[in-house]
Amino acid sequence: MLKRLATLILLLAFAAPAQAADPANMMMVTTKAKFEDVKDDLVNAVTKRGLVVDYTAHIGAMLDRTAKDVGATMQVYARAEAIQFCSAVLSRKMMEADPTNIVFCPYVIAIYSLASDPATVHVAYRRPQQAGTPASRAALKAVDDLLAAIVREAVKK
């Protein structure tokens, strides 16, 4: 009986209706600039700080490429990519403050335009949750500040 109840609870937990991401946990700005220009400005904003873009995920292309395989009929994005990078200085501070902060590294900033509105480019990132000790909160705030500055610079806001 207890095992059935536990199974039911798990099923209900995973069957909960999907909700949009909590805006407090992400930062997003939009612009009417060209996707390639915004992407270039984003990469330049990262590299001019002495950081290196380690990887670019071509999320929109992956969704397009796999749509038939998964039975999808809707195109979500006109373009969608995410860049990944890190700061040795900030990452070390946040992980020395709390080793579990490893989950916030590497940093990822997404850039996308929707299929339904290809003229609007969105630039977004997940905000690191500022939790733990005062040193941890300060280190995570510094990462959030860096990401916000990079995004603002890329879209000139």
Give structural notes.
By secondary structure, the protein is an alpha+beta fold. 45% of the residues lie in helices and 24% in strands. Strand 4 and strand 5 (117-126) form a beta hairpin. The chain is globular. Mean pLDDT is 88; it is low at 1-19.
Gyration radius from CA atoms, angstroms: 19 Å
Please provide the count of β strands. 5
How many helical elements?
5
Task: Give the overall pLDDT as a whole number.
Answer: 88
Helix content: 40-55%
Characterize the main sheet.
Answer: 5 strands, antiparallel
Structural class: alpha+beta
Contiguous runs where pLDDT drops below 50 for at least 5 residues:
1-19
Short description:
Strands 1-5-4-3-2 form a five-stranded antiparallel β-sheet.
Layout of helices and strands, plus pairs?
Blueprint (H helix, E strand, L loop, with lengths): L1 H13 L11 E6 L3 H13 L5 E5 L1 H12 L6 E9 L2 H10 L9 E8 L2 E10 L7 H22 L2
Antiparallel strand pairs: 1-5, 2-3, 3-4, 4-5
Helix pairs in contact: 2-5, 4-5
